[in-house]
Amino acid sequence: MAATAALDRGVLLTRSLTLTASLLAAALGFIVFLQFGASDGFDAFDVLRAVLIFASTFWLAWGAFTALAGLTSRPPRVPRITGPIKARTAILVPVYNEDPVATFARIAAMDASLRATGHGDRFHFAILSDTRNDEVAARERIWFLRLLADTHGEGRIFYRRRAQNKGRKAGNIEDFIKRAGAAYSYAIILDADSLMEGATMVEMVRRMEAAPDLGLLQTLPKVIRARSRFGRIMQFAGGFYSPIFARGLAMMQGRTGPFWGHNAIVRMRAFAESCALPELSGKPPFGGHILSHDYVEAALLARAGWTVRVDDDLKGSYEEAPENIVDHAKRDRRWCQGNLQHSRLLMAPGLKPWSRFVFLQGILAYIAPVFWLAFLAASIAAPLFAPPIDYFPIESWPFPVLPVSQVSKALGLAVGIGGLLFLPKLLIVLDAALRGRTRAFGGWVRALQSTLAELLLSSITAPIFLMFQTRSVLQVLRGADGGWPAQTRGDGTLSLADAWAASHWIVTTGGVVLAAAQWLSPQLVLWLLPVALPLALAPFIISWSSRPSRSRLFSTPTERLPADVMEHQDHILARWVTFDAPLDEPLADLRPSPAA
């Protein structure tokens, strides 16, 4: 009890300090810009731009202070049990038009890793197919037979395909829980590209067993197998920065933690009793099935009194990620719609205040780019609305009164915003060097070089992401439903023509921004070049970043020393691709399992 009370006090203190510091940083930006904007005469546009600076700076400051919270705290000691595992756990693998060879090879590798722990018999795999493509579904059934033959998985590995994919992934999992959930104490929820060490799954069960109030335990998945320049940059950022940000997030969220939809374990009874999702009234994008169901399920568990926790010290949890900016933007479009849809749930009855704040954070994450774009547009248009400068404001005074230069304030504001973006990552490098964490990333020199290169490249791609996110927000606001497109896997190389087709509108926007600035606010052109040039060069940046990377930068621990489960998967894939026909058995021999 004393440890729990101390943790709750620490969480409350971290939340209070982070919120206060973020608001103070935003207020300082508001005041400084108001002084700068009023130097040539005060007008409503100055207030508008200052408000936009306040909102945007708050979001940047929140991320920066989350990292500081992660740097200044360490994971608490969590209870766990030892000895044999008695509970039975279902490992749920929802699939939707995925390549069954790659997906089932991951399952075979995880099964081998589990059996090596000596606890494999306590874990069952359930492949939950929502595939709509009949040809892909036929391949799923064939390769499922190969999976069973290779793993001797009869009675432990199950497959079923839903006739209708009502509720998408959340509905798929709900359907399994209704049919077979009572047979299991826990469920580990994965994605089709998830990979997890058997020892990690066993440890997750032990932690659940030791904490009867724990409803959901979220791991921090590391991105693996990236090949492109963009993918390896994202992989490095996820492996190097994310543990610190996740630690800060864990310290702030406490027992009302996150659920990211995969690579997590849930207590079956808690999930079944608490997480039935409503179908929102009206049509998508704001009505219908809840897209970003994971945040909502975490909030519903917390509302029912269950603890939701992220343990950032758990290793051996992996996922794959998009290999180019366009595929990333397609996935982000769905996340954008899901997060904006949460505006319908902000006032849902009984939710914890922090859960409501998490919904608000998710909304702000996608609205913030719109604020920045609106700020740029308002700054370019400001001269049209600014009052004329009066050089003789004092009657009968013969000498002109020249306005005081506000360049120092503009530079100070730019440095402050840049500091919120860059300083946390540089502090992470310093902390990693002092604690020896950089050794796994090639040493502190290589880690510093990778960080500086990542900062440069992320600054170049940031305006492109800003445009994609702004378009997503505007599409949702005008009522366009993005649906749930299948993930693009494998080689993500884009030709210049493909990149042009996806981003020609961004090039046009960059040209319009520069032309408008040259016409209305020539003094802003130089300041706008870091934003406008990446927009004008978007196809080249997108195509270049999608190509395979041969750089020694952005090295990660799993590149230098792949995990055992990764090597298992490689061996299985290498063996499977030699089969012209996976098995001779006809498809009619495959019977659906009653457990799935």
What do these coordinates show?
The chain is α/β, with parallel strands linked by helices. 58% of the residues lie in helices and 7% in strands. It contains 19 helices and ten strands. It has a seven-stranded mixed sheet, sandwiched between helices. α3 packs parallel to α4, α11 crosses α14 and α13 (407-435) crosses α14. The two termini are 40 Å apart.
In short:
With 596 residues, the chain is α/β, with parallel strands linked by helices. It is built from 19 helices and 10 strands.
Topology:
Elements: H1 2-37, H2 44-71, E1 89-95, H3 100-117, E2 123-129, H4 134-151, E3 157-161, H5 168-180, E4 186-189, E5 195-196, H6 198-210, E6 214-218, E7 222-223, H7 229-240, H8 242-253, E8 264-267, H9 268-274, H10 293-303, E9 307-310, E10 317-319, H11 325-341, H12 353-385, H13 407-435, H14 444-477, H15 496-520, H16 525-536, H17 538-545, H18 557-560, H19 564-576
Parallel strand pairs: 1-2, 1-4, 2-3, 6-9, 7-10
Antiparallel strand pairs: 4-8, 5-10, 6-8
